[in-house]
Design goal:
Shape: elongated
Number of strands: 10
Number of helices: 5
Order of helices and strands: HEEEEEEEHHHEEEH
CATH topology of the largest domain: Pnp Oxidase, Chain A
Radius of gyration: 20 Å
Oligomer: single chain
Largest sheet: 7 strands, mixed
Length: 235
């Protein structure tokens, strides 16, 4: 279920794709019906292993093979929420040479299309949009920040419920952070009946640097403490 927050306070499809490509630790490469699982991307993400280029551009390697390829990436919540899959990204294109997961050089891919699927919505993103978009400042640190919040400061999470609109239902079982980006933090409100909804809490201003994440979360907590809306999780 969706949050009641406005679309303006969320990453665009291009930002989602760019950040997932930056933070991914693995991907599936499909060529000629063969699936290769590629892990341990050395902190560079897929773009450290692949060079995407427009069909009108020449491949830097000079090779001219045209092998259809599909790259599949999944974005999974780092916290133990229900339904951890947040998004899927599928890139299609043409390889300039057969793909080898153990190569030490970048593989040239003629860009076809990029599709991002999330919360039942599908959006296509162009190569120009990907190139024009910077990775979210939180992309590679999100998992660490959210797991730290759950492991070390879980008692603060119910406090943030004071900022949630519409107000949480009474059968709420637990609340966990499910996503963090430059625009805000998303909480997943899980109910005893088995359903859930996501609540978006936008930051006062978007992040421009990862060092701003802590102060922005503190600002939300301060606003929650000033709020008269109270809600308690069941014991």
């Amino acid at each position: 279920m969706r949050s009641s927050s406005t679309r303006a306070a969320r990453p665009t499809p291009a930002e989602r794709v760019r950040s997932i490509l930056t933070a991914a630790h693995s991907m599936t490469v499909v060529t000629d019906g063969v699936h290769q699982e590629v892990h341990l991307l050395d902190g560079t993400g897929p773009m450290g292993h692949l060079h995407l280029h427009d069909p009108s551009e020449n491949c830097p390697t000079g090779r001219t093979a045209r092998i259809p390829v599909r790259l599949e990436l999944t974005d999974v919540a780092p916290t133990p929420v229900r339904r951890r899959l947040r998004a899927r990204v599928t890139l299609t294109g043409l390889l300039s040479a057969p793909y080898a997961s153990d190569t030490t050089t970048s593989t040239c891919v003629e860009f076809g299309q990029a599709l991002v699927e999330s919360d039942g919505e599908r959006a296509y993103v162009t190569l120009d949009e990907i190139r024009a978009t910077d990775p979210d400042p939180t992309a590679t640190a999100e998992a660490t920040l959210l797991t730290h919040l759950v492991d070390r400061h879980a008692a603060l999470l119910p406090l943030l419920l004071r900022l949630v609109r519409p107000r949480p239902e009474r059968d709420l079982a637990r609340v966990l952070p499910v996503a963090l980006d430059r625009y805000g933090i998303t909480l997943r409100l899980e109910h005893r009946t088995g359903h859930h909804r996501d609540a978006r809490l936008p930051f006062p201003a978007p992040l421009t640097d990862i060092d701003q994440a802590g102060p922005r979360i503190q600002a939300l907590l301060a606003a929650a403490r000033r709020s008269s809306h109270t809600h308690h999780l069941p014991a």
